[in-house]
Amino acid sequence: MLSQEQRIAITNSVPWNIFLLTVGALLSAFALKCIAKPHEFVGGGLYGTAMLIEYATSSIGIAAWYTLFNIPVLLAGWFFLSRRFMLYTIYCIAVTAVATQFLTIDAGITDKTLAAIATGTLCGAGSGIAMRSLGSDGGLNIISLILNQKYNLNVGTFTVVFNFMLFLVALPVIRVDNVLYSMLIAYLTSTLTNYFVGMFDERKLVFIISEQYQNIAQSIMRNLGRGCTVLHGQGAFTRQEREILLTVVHNIQLKRLEELVYNEDPRAFLIIENTHLVLGKGFSQRKKY
Questions:
Q1: C-alpha–C-alpha distance, residues 82 and 57, integer Å
Q2: Where in the chain is the domain with CATH 3.30.70.120?
Q3: CA nearest 60: which of 120, 110, 100, 108?
Q4: Where residue 287 falls among pLDDT bands split at 50, 70, 90?
Q5: Level-2 CATH architecture, domain 203-275
Q6: Is residue 52 a contact partner of residue 173, using CB atoms and an 8 Å limit?
Q7: In what order do the strands lie in the sheet with 269-275?
Q8: Contact at 8 Å (CB) between 114 and 27?
Q9: Helices 155-170 and 45-57, interaxial angle, to 10°?
């Protein structure tokens, strides 16, 4: 099993990040070019804007419009975000543009509902995989991060507003049914992006109330390799002082934790909560933008 230092080294390595960005870009490009475009759907963000303009004008192609829209965004990101983040992001945008230009695969999905679901699922997976790297898939993500750092605006707020305006503009250009399918794609993409970004970072936050808290803490540290924090509490009804253990464990350690606790104290009281992100030693490392 890899040590924490080895996992961090792999996560920060260039080959690993290039791999994530390449897979993410190819999934998104395939979904939008080979599934969404034949049905005249509009993706969200700058790629969706490029698709809409191409539907309306049949001019220079989606890949060219997508690249042009990203140039000012990349310039802004170059000044406000880290160079490493931007270089990885530029690579992802380039792969997406090239794949869009040359992918000609027929996905073979004729049902519009299934096509919308497939597009949203693959786009969400692609974006989420790319966002797990030290870069991003570009577009609105860069603008959202800049607004978040300068004005503390929620990262998803700008994307939601932009896509809402994009779908309004799309109404006179494509069929209303296709706009609604496009909204479904945007929803699935957002939901699954968040899922893929956090799927390996979700942990369990556990509160343990027991008179045997010292033995339980030693057992957790010895057998699970996790730290514990002792909180001082008081029963609201009994006014009795008591100690509460707080610990965070990986999902796969939860059942073993339960066994350790109840072996020490069958009357122990456990409170288990999901956490979407835990930063620090032994868990995830902070991503710098």
A1: 36
A2: 203-275
A3: 100
A4: low
A5: 2-Layer Sandwich (3.30)
A6: yes
A7: 229-234, 241-250, 203-209, 269-275
A8: no
A9: 10
The amino acid occupying position 244 is: I
Buried b / exposed e over 185-211, threshold 16 CB at 10 Å, is: bbebbbebbbebbbeeeebbebebbbe
The dihedral region occupied by 49, where left means phi > 0, alpha psi between -120 and 50, and beta the remainder, is: alpha
Of 49-63, 204-218, 271-285, the poorest mean pLDDT is in: 271-285
Q: Using CA atoms, how far apart are residues 27 and 14, in angstroms rounded to an integer?
A: 20
Show the tokens assigned to 62: 């989606």
Beta bridge partner(s), residue 144: none
CA-CA distance, 184 to 120, in Å (whole number)? 7
Q: How many CB atoms lie within 10 A of CB 157?
A: 12
Count CB-CB contacts under 10 A for residue 91.
18
Model confidence band, residue 216 (pLDDT cutoffs 50, 70, 90): very high
Q: Which of 242, 268, 146, 137 is nearest to 196 (CA)?
A: 137
For 145, 189, 259, 277, the CA distances from 199, given in Å and listed in that order, are 21, 15, 25, 10
For 47, residues 6+ apart whose C-beta sits below 8 A from its C-beta are 28, 32, 62, 66, 96, 139
